[in-house]
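This is your field. Have a critical look at both lines of this record:
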Amino acid sequence: MSATDQTPAPAASTASAMRAARTRTVLGHALEAAASAADGGLDAVIAAGQASLMGEPHVELVRVSTVDGETGGALDSGHSGTVTVTIAARVDGVDASRSRTFYVA
């Protein structure tokens, strides 16, 4: 980038797009793992979301949070019903989070 041209260099844009795509993929897989464990209950959902990030290079789990999918309120471990799961992680040095709502048995 020159002083007169404020357009980012193509390589920087490409690297940023690749990081964003990897972040979406990693967090998307974690949410899919969490949702696939929904028949096992809330504890299984949390464990699956956490486990899916284990061993992933350059990924640090920040938190997994769950709230009632309809009210946004706190949940008991035995909760059955709609749940919103948010997974936050540091992927390649960038903080990100994604959420998904689904039914937990």
About this structure: The chain has two helices and three strands. The mean pLDDT is 91.
